[in-house]
Specification:
alpha+beta; globular
Length: about 240
């Protein structure tokens, strides 16, 4: 945590004065950086009881932090712990972010042509989620377009649409006790279908989320507009 490091380093320098050499101060800085990294990891981790409950239910678990509180340069991890990748099981925005938390909303789809769908299934357990569920069936059989213009259309469509009387959005209210389906399409990186349940909310607004992978699809390779033009030109010839 950069601000914490600066605070402690400043205190070290003030107290030490000219008594410490530059090398000694640098060693102290490394020590404080190591301590901050350990604290950051602890803040991002679920509590022991959450881990035990998830293990009993045979599901994954992670904590996600509210972006408006933590994404202010406090953490070394990019995004301040407000993002999570099911593929990488990482909080870093650099590691294929597939879900985020901001202003008590879950969101999917963050950069480039990538997009995704969310739907709220209400208060049902993760164990009850299977292919008999209409939303699971629809999202499992959905195939993202590979041409960039069509992908951009789907990206816009993902904001709010309906299929078989079930609503899908790229942003939904985060409600404790509710279970959601997430289809996250990250072109050239990953494509997953996940069921997640908001198990509880902590005092700082962070959420403890239980989840299970329903399908790991083949990476969708985006055919960008320039590539599409070349393909069409070759076909015409």
């Amino acid at each position: 945590m950069r601000l914490v490091l600066l605070f402690f380093l400043s205190a070290v320098l003030c107290s030490a004065g000219s008594a410490q050499t530059r090398e000694e101060v640098l060693e102290k800085f490394k020590e404080l950086n190591s301590q901050a990294a350990a604290l950051e990891k602890s803040i991002l981790s679920p509590d022991k009881k959450d881990l035990e409950t998830a293990a009993r239910e045979a599901v994954g678990v992670f904590r996600i932090l509210p972006r408006e509180v933590y994404d202010k340069g406090l953490f070394n991890v990019r995004g301040g712990g407000a993002y999570y990748s099911f593929t990488k099981q990482s909080h870093s925005y650099d590691d294929i972010p597939q879900i985020s938390l901001e202003q008590n909303y879950l969101k999917v789809g963050f950069y480039g042509a990538s997009y995704g769908f969310l739907t709220d299934l209400g208060e049902i357990g993760l164990a009850a989620i299977n292919e008999d569920n209409k939303a699971v069936d629809f999202l499992k059989n959905y195939r993202p377009p590979l041409e960039e213009p069509k992908a951009r259309i789907e990206q816009t469509k993902a904001r709010d649409f309906e299929a078989e009387n079930i609503g899908y959005k790229n942003r939904l209210n985060a409600i404790v006790g509710h279970t959601y389906l997430v289809r996250a399409v990250s072109y050239d990186e990953a494509d997953v279908l996940v069921a997640l349940k908001i198990y509880r909310q902590d005092t700082d607004g962070s959420l403890i989320i239980f989840w299970k992978l329903l399908e790991n699809f083949e990476k969708p390779k985006l055919l960008r507009e320039r590539q599409s033009a070349v393909v069409v030109d070759n076909v015409d010839k």
